[in-house]
Specification:
With about 325 residues, chain A is an alpha/beta fold. Chain A is about 25% helix and about 30% strand. Helix content of chain B is about 40%, strand content about 10%. Chain B contains 8 helices and 7 strands. The termini of chain B are far apart. Classes of the chains: A alpha/beta (about 325), B mainly alpha (about 325).
Chain lengths: ~325, ~325
């Protein structure tokens, strides 16, 4: 026996439709949470990542001691949170003696763990420690430039994976139109060695140059840290294939009343509504316009005048 | 210094990748490293900006608006692709028969009142309650209420429609294409003959059941593999404590103590020590309260305070009871 449950509220219905799977996806939301123990630097890292992704991120501040992303049973809590907050990327921070300042960045497919990368944070410099001209500060939610430097990103497996995950994390929304005046931030990731990456966040200053393209100048603004890759887990082949599938580019918007013919080309249909004969204003009804009436009046006046003359004459 | 210049630029993502750079030797100071990284970064971003600013732009209020090309780096989706809805039974039938959908008007002309009324809802056309007279036909049975019959027919039609709708949704759910705002919930199905809904099991009950199941194993569930987060079983049931195999026969010898306790109970040398005072007091109090209740029912008086004065007398009585027994045993020995 089954019962059909539909939302009785328009608001709830709209929320559900927002969370439904779509053909073309917009940006992923990020979930930031921590484990049993965190250090001061890790707290700073997590709050700054939250700042950078203010529009599309959810921050949990309590400790969660039953989350172990790399163990088979320890992901249930993460999947539950992902389901409830509708987040597909998570950043999990924890600190232990064996893995100090540990950050696990993971992605979800259909609210199940897709892949994971574990990095350690070293040499973290927070936003406050940078001095710069406050006017250049990048605005919240602007689309960033992302630059990857280093052959490590091409050769080393783990760095390749990290590159993909960082791109997903830092990207923001996928937009079609972009305002060139609003480009003011950039992330630079350099592969220093085969397992270390230097990540920094900079503001962009556009300087006049001779051509249309302005000269870029980067000023370090935001957090900068060294990421040491510790562990990573790639997705299963089958799952990866399924997740990478995209809908073939279908003509999304079908223009109505337009069809194309091989011989004649594009044909359009125009629909004219029925003429309401009874309601149409009679063209002759306008006051004072009728020529015949005017002429008839004139004639009458003339006739009367002539009649009077006749009478007078008689 | 890299000699080749081809950066991999993805304008759709505002991404630039330089796969050819490598630090020949790590710069010693951190500042130099940072500077070097920023330089490389600037070059890359300049490359992206080159392609970006050369795209055709339209003027907007805030600034030049540019239409970005779709991104070239493929990233995994976050949710599965939405499956198309399967056609419902009616849609299949209509397609087979060639029935076209007709656009319906919002209002209809109502013959009875001579006004335009809506198709459904409050104050609608052809409402059952607006019919004043139903003419009797030859096929009608006497004693049957035609108005009630009309209402029943409508109810049946509505139920049939609901059933069909449920079937369509179940079919869609089977293919994984349920609409996002619909949820199919399984209502409780009573397996027993009664109509009572099955009782909801609480967390504690489940834990107890797990413990009970564990005791059926040979080792009493002690070595069962536990799930992550499952708490170890609380000490349940009798657990025997065995004496150590090798022990001295001095004062602290537990075996001696054990046998002594048993003997004392049997022989009852110190019979007054055998008495369980607490238990005796409780038994007495219970008896007294019962008596008081009975008296209350008859008289309506409460005599709880007077009970406290009597216990000592009864104690002696009990000790006295044990007395003749113990003397008997002594005699038997």
């Amino acid at each position: 026996m089954m019962k059909i449950k539909t939302p009785r509220n328009g608001r709830v219905r709209r929320e559900l439709e927002k969370r439904a799977p779509k053909l073309v996806e917009t940006g992923k939301k990020t979930l930031i949470l921590q484990g049993t123990k965190t250090s001061g630097t890790l707290n700073g890292v997590l709050s700054e990542i939250y700042h950078l992704k203010k529009g599309g991120a959810v921050r949990f501040t309590r400790k969660n001691d039953n989350i172990r992303p790399f163990e088979s049973g320890g992901e249930t809590s993460l999947e539950f949170f992902s389901l409830k907050t509708d987040c597909s990327i998570f950043v999990y921070g924890s600190h232990s003696k064996k893995r100090p300042n540990n950050l696990v960045i993971g992605r979800m497919y259909d609210h199940h763990v897709y892949d994971l990368v574990e990095v350690g944070v070293e040499n973290f410099k927070s936003i406050e420690s940078f001095t710069y001209d406050k006017k250049m500060a990048p605005r919240v939610g602007s689309k960033p430039f992302i630059a990857f430097v280093g052959e490590g990103f091409e050769n080393v497996d783990e760095l390749k994976h990290l590159k993909e995950v960082l791109l997903d994390l830092l990207r923001g929304e996928v937009v079609e139109n972009i305002n060139l005046a609003g480009l003011d931030r950039a992330y630079v990731c350099t592969a220093i060695s085969s397992n270390k990456v230097y990540l920094t966040h900079c503001a962009i200053r556009l300087k006049k140059s001779g051509t249309v393209v302005p000269r870029m100048e980067l000023v370090e603004v935001g957090p900068s840290m060294d990421l040491v890759v510790r562990r990573h887990r790639l997705p299963n082949e089958g799952l990866r294939k399924e997740a990478m599938r995209t809908a073939k580019d279908q003509p999304k918007k079908k223009i109505k009343n337009v069809s194309s013919d091989a011989i004649e080309g594009t044909i359009g249909k125009i629909y004219i509504p029925d003429q309401k004969v009874g309601d149409v204003a009679l063209p002759n009804k306008a006051k004072g316009v009728k020529r015949e009436r005017r002429e008839a009046k004139k004639k009458e006046a003339n006739e009367r005048a002539s009649k009077k003359q006749k009478e007078e004459s008689e | 210094m890299e000699t080749q210049k081809p950066f991999q630029v993805d304008v759709g993502n505002l991404l630039a990748f330089n796969p050819f750079h490598n630090f020949p030797s790590l710069p010693t100071s951190r500042d130099e490293l940072v500077k070097g990284c920023l330089e490389e970064g600037t070059k890359l971003i300049q490359a992206v900006a080159d392609s970006l600013f050369n795209l055709p732009s339209t003027e907007d209020v805030d600034g030049p608006l540019v239409k970005l090309p779709p991104p070239t780096t493929k990233l995994p989706r976050e949710k599965h692709l939405p499956k198309p809805k399967p056609p419902t039974k009616w849609e299949e039938f209509a397609k087979k028969k060639g029935i076209q959908k007709r656009k319906k008007d919002k209002v209809l002309w109502d013959e009875q009142t001579g006004t335009w009324k809506r198709r459904f809802g409050y104050d609608r056309v052809n409402d059952d309650k607006d019919i004043p007279i139903i003419e009797a036909k030859m096929t009608d049975e006497p004693g049957e209420d035609p108005f009630a019959k009309r209402q029943d027919d409508k109810k049946k039609r509505v139920e049939k429609q609901e059933k069909n709708r449920l079937q369509n949704l179940k079919q869609a759910a089977k293919l994984g294409a349920l609409p996002s705002h619909v949820q199919l919930a399984a209502t409780a199905l009573p397996i027993t003959g009664t109509q009572a809904p099955p009782k909801k099991v609480t967390k504690d009950e489940l834990g107890n059941v797990a413990g009970m199941a564990a005791t059926s194993t040979a080792s009493g569930g002690k070595f069962d593999r536990k799930l992550l987060g499952e708490k170890p079983a609380k000490k349940q049931g009798k657990h025997r404590k065995f004496l150590p195999v090798v022990e001295g026969s001095g004062i602290g010898s537990r075996e001696k103590e054990q046998t002594e306790n048993v003997l004392n109970k049997l022989i009852s040398k110190h019979s007054h020590e055998i008495l369980n005072v607490g238990k005796a007091v409780t038994m007495y109090n219970v008896k007294k309260e019962k008596k008081a209740r009975n008296r209350k029912n008859q008289e309506g008086k409460s005599s709880s305070t007077s009970n406290k004065l009597k216990p000592k007398k009864q104690l002696h009585k009990k000790a006295a009871k044990k007395g003749p027994e113990s003397s008997k045993k002594r005699m038997a020995k």
